[in-house]
Amino acid sequence: MANRDYRLVAVIEIGSTGIRLVVAELNPSSDWHVVDRSGKPVALGRDVFTRGIISRESMLASIAVLRNYRELLNGWGIDDPDIHVIATSALREARNRDMFIDRVFLQTGFKIVVVEGIEENRLMYLAVRFALQDDRPQFSRSNSVIIEVGGGSTELMLLRRGKMVAAHSLRLGTILVDQQVRQTMGANIYLQRFLTESVNNTCESLNVELDLSHIKIFIVAGSDARLVASRFGVELNKNCWVVDRRVFIEFVDRIKGYSIEECVQKLRIPFAEAEGIIPGLLTYKLFLEKTAATELIVPNASIREGMLINLSQGVDPNLQEEFYSQVIASAINLGKKYRFDENHSRHVTALALNLFDALLTMHGMDRRARLLLEVAGLLHDVGMFIRSSGHHKHSQYIVANSEIFGLHQEDLDVISNVVRYHRKAPPNATHIAFIALQREDRVLVLKLAAILRVADALDRGHAQRIKDIKVEQREDAILITVMGSHDLTLERLGLEEKSDMFQDVFGYKVILL
Amino acid sequence: MQTVPFRYFNRDLSWVDFNARVLGEALRRDLPVLDRLKFLTIVASNFDEFFMVRVAAIKRAQRMNLGRDPAGLLPEEQLRYIAEKVKHITNETYRCLNEEVLPELAKAGLELIRPAAYSQAQFEYLENLFLKEVFPILTPLRLEDDAEPPSMGNLKLHGAFLLDNGKVAIVQIPTALDRIIWLPPEPDQVKPWALLDDVVMLWASRLFNGYTIKEGMLFKVTRDADFSVDEERDEDFVEAMAEVLQNREHSWPVRLSCTGNSPVLKERIAQLLKLDELDIYEMPGPIDLRSLSELAFIKGFDQFREPPWPPLWPVELPEDEPLWETLHERDVLLQLPYHTFDPVVRFIQDASVDPRVLSIKITLYRTSGESPIVKALEQAARNGKQVTVLVELKARFDEERNITWASRLERAGVIVVYGIAQLKVHAKICLVVRREDNGICRYVHLSTGNYNDKTARLYSDLSLFTINQQIAQDATLFFNMITGYSVIQSMQQLVIAPVNLKRRLIELIDREAKRSSQEYPGKIVAKLNSLADVEVINALYRANQAGVSIQLNVRGICMLVPGVPGLSEHIQVVSIIDRYLEHSRILYFANGGAEEIYISSADWMSRNLDRRIELMVPLLDASVANTVKGILFSFFKDNTHSHVLAPDGVWSRRPPETDEEAFRVQEALYTELKLASELSRTAPRQEFIVRRRPPAE
């Protein structure tokens, strides 16, 4: 048998307007190239965003498409572990999604994973970074936005000098817009007014996070933009086009009055794509006009490519760390929004990570847990924004209801609980949010909260006096030696209160020397 | 014949001219007699199809009052002109047959013996044959004036008889028996033969005991075959297709061919079929020449044929190893039928047994169940490969054959796709996916001709083996599209009809016009079977006006009018009719020095560009592109089998200029390949091919 280091993987995306497939060959050098693509329109978005459920017809249509894809994949000899079926906003919001997932599994054998909006963001970011390569060096120096208008949601990321400031999954999608326009005013003429208002409102809150008028780089992912780019764009590299701002705005202004039929005829695009193209392009144009960008960068990137990169580079430590740093940047920005005590938070986080790393063999947690601890450390006090008293509870719901780039809802559920238990009472049977977690996640929360409590105690005075610690593990106790000489009365008092959980969880006393 | 000024020739008259050129080959006295006979049978069989499809369509247009065609002719005018031309050609055909070919055949020992010349022994032999084998299967039918006429099957030969009571009876000449009956030779004869219809007519009185036959006549009815299945019936398409085939036997008649010896019978039958004078074709000699093709291909008698050009194995390909490795080094071009079709068959056979092959996808348009390709595909499916076959059931006149072997493939586990609603899949493409050491490798075979080992010996086609990544990727997407896995997706290299082939073609022609300047005039050279799309023709006229020099080699229909000042003075149209049927489509654009060359499955007819799935593919391998360019250009050097179209629509043979040597393009192409083949055989080995690994698992 010849050595075959490469493997074939398939990604199927169940989106709002269609079901698309890509098959790629992954090489050991974490390089990959696409060998097959398919796409069939299924109007799941139209169902879900109007009636809340996927209709019987669409369900049957989806199953028919997926059956065909099964046949196609058999031709490639790809087995289930290498087939990734993901679903985005339409299925995410469908009330009958569990039933849909089950029916699909029974009839096609495909296991659908519903991707969170923010995870969609992450995959998109991966795809965009990949497509961009190093061909726009100012990416890391200027402020940028990455945006994709989908059928049911708009994914939007703001970056300051290449660092993630905010990531949002907005409830603004082409199908959604279409429905709302029809319901409220009944005619397409109002589309532009409606969109302008939506975009203005969105931009007001985005401006708080990053002044949009300072954005120099405007990156648009999404098939609508690719259509424009393939027509008017200049190739930046084989995966990326650049379109002049003026050219783009002129084109959108020219076609915005087209009916869907005119779009099909004049733009020579399939009907399924024509339906969303005008609201989609209009939205890009409106956002573009809020920025200082002189051009649009259109990468040939979709969540499917993101998934492939994820699969091919899942073990690349550099990329992973780069990604984690974006998560942290996004968390810090959330903290800033709630005017957190940045020095204290960063200090506690540093101490907590110090403990985490020193006690690795004792607690046996992985890199992801460390990231969750880091985010929890940064955000443990955001609840102070509401009120000091009970601020751990305020922190909890703020975290649980915010968006942090790169983190799933399950991650946020863990973090919000860690934050919740950074002080005061430990979990009990009436704490619904805690009980709602999976068993492993409940253990994870306890372990992380135990560490965070100790770290927080070490900066009881919020004065960052303890700069450096040494951690020693004894028979039945953890010895923390503070470097330099300080009066540690306050911290000892704090530990007295807060190391109880550590002792319960890990079985060790914490002794401050 | 047509009024000037006009921008287009009439499509069907242009086709009739093509068949006249085919007859021109039969008329060549320098051709051996069996080849001449072959061309006569082709002329006849071409007309059969022409009447079934085209004349039927014009008649339908007439009934629907569709108005004038692009050449400005009304349907009735077209029918009249066609009848005039066809009658003239028919007369020429029989003059040639009776005065030249039959006597020549007799000299060659293949003598047709008509009843008056039967020897005693032969008479007895035939009478015996009639009584034992023919008589029992004859079914005479009496024609009643007021009753529904009995069915007279499409293209079936019938005898008609006027009896002494004034009644008319008909009898079908059995198709189960060979029409040619070999006779016991008399001492001065070599291999004499008789016609079955003569035998039936001679002893027909046995069918009508008690009556006397006053007159007898042979005839054949040609019926409308230009109707298609009900495309709405998606779920039982195969069944719907079967019904169409049945209906074709009984659809309305468009032509009556008969021996002209009985005006009364001719009148009666024409009346019955509701055909008028224009539709009746009298043939002074054996009618239905198509069935004499058996004679043209008879074994022995090779001295009465042109020396054969035995198909060659392409020198680029290894003779006893799979093609995989060679194709990693370079693209390989096959020139059929000078090259053998075997590499294509071998390619699929290799794929069917190679353990690394994952899947095979192929489009089959006209092929036979006996075809080694179909057998290999069946085998591949049984070996666990994923095999996907798109069978075009709608390939005209082949539908019946297609249905049977398609279901056999299905039983073997092949994924069979029965075509696409409203569109015929005419593209010829095969994709083999193979798992190799360094990754997935996709082998693509693209051709201008069908996967049919029989026609591959008679049609001149080009086909290309490549592993070019972009073409392979496009091929994958193309199959996704035609098997219903995907919507139409954008392609990098392949151009597809009806998606963008026509638009692209016109863009390419317009680009050439735009790039053309006084110093560097543009150049377009194309080889086609038919040129009948008005939009494309207009683009060519535009290019002409921009000074682009345009050379067209159009085998059949050409609606473009060449050589008209201000419209087409830079356009030259030639047509090659020779031993092999010219079938490849090649396109060349000078493109300001960055030459581009394409091969295609599509003719430039609205039918192909708008209602068929066709492919056009650029030749990206420089050496292949160069070879094809050479082939394409050499067609315009032919001065023995080339015909030139004049502005008035008249085709004339292009003779060698005074100081020109004779150049016969088909022979030249073969000779060149043969030389290369001999060279590679006789060249001493420079090295041994050493195997370091065991041969592929």
List the helices and strands and how they pair.
The complex is a heterodimer of chains A (513) and B (697).
Chain A: E1 7-14, E2 18-26, E3 32-41, H1 44-51, H2 56-76, E4 83-87, H3 89-93, H4 97-108, E5 112-114, H5 117-132, E6 143-149, E7 154-160, E8 163-170, H6 174-184, H7 191-209, E9 215-220, H8 223-232, E10 234-237, E11 240-244, H9 245-255, H10 260-267, H11 271-290, E12 295-299, H12 303-313, H13 317-337, H14 342-358, H15 360-363, H16 367-379, H17 391-400, H18 409-420, H19 432-435, H20 439-457, E13 469-473, E14 477-482, H21 489-498, H22 500-506, E15 509-512
Parallel strand pairs in A: 1-4, 4-5, 6-9, 9-12, 14-15
Antiparallel strand pairs in A: 1-2, 2-3, 6-7, 7-8, 10-11, 11-12, 13-14
Helix pairs in contact in A: 2-4, 5-12, 6-11, 7-11, 9-11, 10-11, 13-16, 14-16, 14-20, 16-18, 16-20, 17-18, 18-20, 20-21, 20-22
Chain B: H1 11-26, H2 33-63, H3 75-108, H4 120-134, E1 141-143, E2 157-163, E3 168-172, E4 180-182, E5 193-195, H5 196-202, E6 213-223, H6 237-248, E7 253-258, H7 263-273, E8 280-282, H8 293-296, H9 324-329, E9 332-336, H10 342-353, E10 357-364, H11 372-382, E11 386-391, H12 399-411, E12 415-417, E13 424-425, E14 428-436, E15 439-447, E16 459-466, H13 469-482, E17 495-497, H14 501-515, E18 523-528, H15 534-545, E19 549-554, E20 571-576, E21 581-582, E22 585-589, E23 596-600, H16 606-611, E24 612-618, H17 622-634, E25 642-645, E26 651-653, H18 665-682
Parallel strand pairs in B: 7-8, 10-11, 11-12, 13-24, 16-21, 18-19, 19-20
Antiparallel strand pairs in B: 1-3, 2-3, 2-6, 4-5, 6-7, 9-16, 10-14, 14-15, 15-16, 17-24, 18-22, 20-25, 22-23, 23-24, 25-26
Helix pairs in contact in B: 1-2, 1-3, 2-3, 10-11, 14-15
